[in-house]
Design a protein that fits this description.
The chain is of the alpha+beta class. It folds into two domains: about 40 residues, no CATH class; about 35 residues, no CATH class. The chain is about 40% helix and about 15% strand.
Protein backbone atom coordinates (compact mmCIF):
# COMPACT_ATOMS: atom_id res chain seq x y z
CA UNK A 1 0.00 0.00 0.00
CA UNK A 2 1.42 3.34 -1.02
CA UNK A 3 1.57 5.49 2.12
CA UNK A 4 1.89 8.65 0.02
CA UNK A 5 -1.65 8.32 -1.35
CA UNK A 6 -4.55 10.32 0.00
CA UNK A 7 -7.35 8.96 2.18
CA UNK A 8 -9.27 6.00 0.84
CA UNK A 9 -13.07 5.54 0.80
CA UNK A 10 -12.87 4.57 4.48
CA UNK A 11 -11.27 7.98 5.19
CA UNK A 12 -8.25 6.35 6.84
CA UNK A 13 -4.78 7.38 5.69
CA UNK A 14 -2.73 4.53 4.14
CA UNK A 15 0.15 5.16 6.59
CA UNK A 16 -2.17 4.36 9.51
CA UNK A 17 -3.51 1.25 7.78
CA UNK A 18 0.08 0.03 7.25
CA UNK A 19 0.95 0.52 10.92
CA UNK A 20 -2.08 -1.31 12.32
CA UNK A 21 -2.52 -4.03 9.66
CA UNK A 22 -0.82 -6.80 11.68
CA UNK A 23 -2.73 -5.91 14.86
CA UNK A 24 -6.14 -5.64 13.19
CA UNK A 25 -5.70 -8.77 11.06
CA UNK A 26 -4.81 -10.99 14.04
CA UNK A 27 -8.20 -11.71 15.67
CA UNK A 28 -10.16 -12.37 12.44
CA UNK A 29 -7.32 -14.56 11.19
CA UNK A 30 -7.31 -16.57 14.43
CA UNK A 31 -11.10 -17.00 14.26
CA UNK A 32 -10.93 -18.20 10.66
CA UNK A 33 -8.08 -20.64 11.41
CA UNK A 34 -9.93 -22.04 14.46
CA UNK A 35 -13.06 -22.55 12.35
CA UNK A 36 -11.07 -24.45 9.74
CA UNK A 37 -9.24 -26.53 12.37
CA UNK A 38 -12.51 -27.53 14.05
CA UNK A 39 -14.33 -28.09 10.77
CA UNK A 40 -17.12 -25.78 11.91
CA UNK A 41 -18.24 -22.50 10.39
CA UNK A 42 -20.65 -19.88 11.73
CA UNK A 43 -24.12 -20.23 10.20
CA UNK A 44 -23.84 -16.82 8.49
CA UNK A 45 -20.71 -17.97 6.66
CA UNK A 46 -22.71 -20.82 5.08
CA UNK A 47 -25.48 -18.58 3.73
CA UNK A 48 -25.08 -16.46 0.64
CA UNK A 49 -27.18 -14.86 -2.05
CA UNK A 50 -25.84 -15.78 -5.49
CA UNK A 51 -25.90 -12.89 -7.95
CA UNK A 52 -25.46 -13.49 -11.69
CA UNK A 53 -23.78 -10.68 -13.60
CA UNK A 54 -24.01 -10.72 -17.40
CA UNK A 55 -20.51 -10.35 -18.81
CA UNK A 56 -20.85 -10.47 -22.61
CA UNK A 57 -22.87 -8.77 -25.31
CA UNK A 58 -25.98 -10.40 -26.81
CA UNK A 59 -24.17 -11.09 -30.12
CA UNK A 60 -21.26 -12.97 -28.58
CA UNK A 61 -23.60 -14.79 -26.19
CA UNK A 62 -24.80 -16.93 -29.11
CA UNK A 63 -21.28 -18.30 -29.55
CA UNK A 64 -20.83 -19.59 -26.00
CA UNK A 65 -22.47 -22.29 -23.92
CA UNK A 66 -25.36 -21.49 -21.61
CA UNK A 67 -24.15 -20.29 -18.22
CA UNK A 68 -20.78 -19.09 -19.45
CA UNK A 69 -22.19 -15.64 -20.22
CA UNK A 70 -22.50 -14.91 -16.52
CA UNK A 71 -20.13 -14.33 -13.64
CA UNK A 72 -21.43 -15.43 -10.27
CA UNK A 73 -20.82 -13.55 -7.03
CA UNK A 74 -21.79 -14.73 -3.56
CA UNK A 75 -23.13 -11.97 -1.32
CA UNK A 76 -22.86 -12.97 2.34
CA UNK A 77 -25.44 -11.41 4.69
Amino acid sequence: MNVKNSLGPDEIHPAIVNRIADIVAGPPSELYEASLDQGKLPRDWKTAAIIAIHKVSAQSQLKIKAGEAYEYIAEVP
